[in-house]
Structures are given as C-alpha cells and as structure tokens.
Amino acid sequence: MCGAVRFRADNVPSDFGACYCDSCRRWSGDRFVGVHVDTQNLKVFGGADINSVRSSDWAERAFCRHCGSGLWFRITAGPQAGSTSLSVGLMDDVSGMKLAREFYVDRKTCLHELPEDREQMTTQQVEALFAPEGVSAQ
Question: What is the pTM of this model?
C-alpha cells in the first residue's frame, strides 16, 4: 500500500486458493486468498521494510513494517517448507485468474456467504458516499 516493499514474481500460475483457517481469518479479516509462487521465482525489493510473524508451528506471515499490508504466507516446516503464497490482492493484473482450491472449508462461517439480496455499490457510488468532493479514494 505504501510502496516501501515491492516484488517481482515470475511464473505465477493462473489459479489461486482461499484459506478459511483461524489464523488467515484473523490476519485478513475474512479469508486469505493467495497464489502459490515458487520462492526462487520471487524477487523482493525493500526487504528491510518487511517484518514477519510466526503464525503457527509450521508457517509465518510477512507484512510491511510501515503500513501493515499483508505480503505472503510461507510454510517454514514440513514437506512444503519454503512454499510461498502471495496475497492475490497485491497482483497488478488478476485477469484470467480463478479460484482453484479452498483450505479449511470446515471453518467457513457466515462471513463467507454472499446473499443474493445484498447491496452492491460501484466505485462512483462509494466515493460519492464517503470521499470528500473531488477526491478519489484510489
């Protein structure tokens, strides 16, 4: 969000996953939506601005130490050690990407249901409601 940390990821697959575990829910406020990128295909700029926290006995989460933006989930132990899932929200272009797998589906809650009758607002509607006149929230 603040630009202190940037990355370049090569060979990013078009499919991503969603995780509903308690740690992901607490970290993201909902579910974590991530795309697996081989760690060797990830080049990070601004590494001094990254903090990480051990979120379980076998994983850590990284975030920007300035603005708090979540960056990735990385497995630190076990057969998938070193595996990195980047937050899909950090990608510049998500066109053509699709949800391919879900983790901890037995922990889904009402947070993850999208009722048909919900209110849906466009960018213009949101900015008209919340942003000062003439100022874009983006």
Answer: 0.83
